[in-house]
Amino acid sequence: xxxxxxxxxxxxxxxxxxxxxxxxxxxxxxxxxxxxxxxxxxxxxxxxxxxxxxxxxxxxxxxxxxxxxxxxxxxxxxxxxxxxxxxxxxxxxxxxxxxxxxxxxxxxxxxxxxxxxxxxxxxxxxxxxxxxxxxxxxxxxxxxxxxxxxxxxxxxxxxxxxxxxxxxxxxxxxxxxxxxxxxxxxxxxxxxxxxxxxxxxxxxxxxxxxxxxxxxxxxxxxxxxxxxxxxxxxxxxxxxxxxxxxxxxxxxxxxxxxxxxxxxxxxxxxxxxxxxxxxxxxxxxxxxxxxxxxxxxxxxxxxxxxxxxxxxxxxxxxxxxxxxxxxxxxxxxxxxxxxxxxxxxxxxxxxxxxxxxxxxxxxxxxxxxxxxxxxxxxxxxxxxxxxxxxxxxxxxxxxxxxxxxxxxxxxxxxxxxxxxxxxxxxxxxxxxxxxxxxxxxxxx
Length: 444
Prior knowledge:
The chain contains 19 helices and nine strands. The protein is an alpha+beta fold. The chain is flat.
């Protein structure tokens, strides 16, 4: 719309009866004199239907809503604002600001302090020692959220534990574990920790609970508190009522488009005096803009049709799933299955699946999550790998955390349920579900 003033956003106007534009080449050479001999009614016919000059996803009864843009201070800005409450001179503030600028999204300082000394000398012409940088880093580590400015996970957890004010025995034991037995803690060798520190089962359990409730990524929590959240606006809406599915495009994802009436009136005015050379040039210019606007509106309409065709094919293919919301009802489905149904290229279906969301009565999902390979059961039935993953996830969720199931045991369990898959496949699915190995799932 910025490039073409003949294209406008706005509500639909009164619809006219259907009548096509006159047949002609819309993009003839503008220097061709034949372009100036045209029927103005091809553009300004009062019987021209409104849908020919408008593109809309909404009906007249749709409620107009604006999605608010979420804003807030960035993670670094939050920390810099806290520096104002510290007794730092201008030079120290510059060093502190530079250090904060080097923190990653999780709130960690991944750059060595000796390298920061060099950076400060070259970029800010500030000469300082490594000890001075580490002293100012200590000030940053006192800022909120606790743990920010850490150089390792161990340091991050220690900072948070030492800032606790309850002075309980469980906190003291937790500090001892993180400080002196961190490697054993990460590998969940609790028996070694218990022997080394002489802790009872209950004391060890309370200390471990203190640690696992700490925040390993303080920078991410600061972003959430700053409300820097991205809202997903679904592209499609599927509603279900008594086993009947209804599909529609989200009307708030695309504006209503139409051809400017001002440009149409301008074309009418210029056409009344065709013999004037300047008027001829103006008519050619206005025609080009209206033609381009018509083409764009048609392209938008075609895009909407492509989206609806593709989503409708997915909805029909996975009808049982969209009615029940149960992942075990998902059929095996690959891009080619949908491409064959809609008679489009696989790349077109891929672009839709990778970037569009659908809202259902049981949640909002990225379309690509509905695609999965097939797997044969003992009875020869083709099932979706999503179904197998769901059963795997449920099996791990109900296991005894004192003795979690190994991948071999999970493979046997799935085989008993009719899913004959190898241990390495179980491991692959488990990793795709972001579930750790049995040893790391162990709890006291």
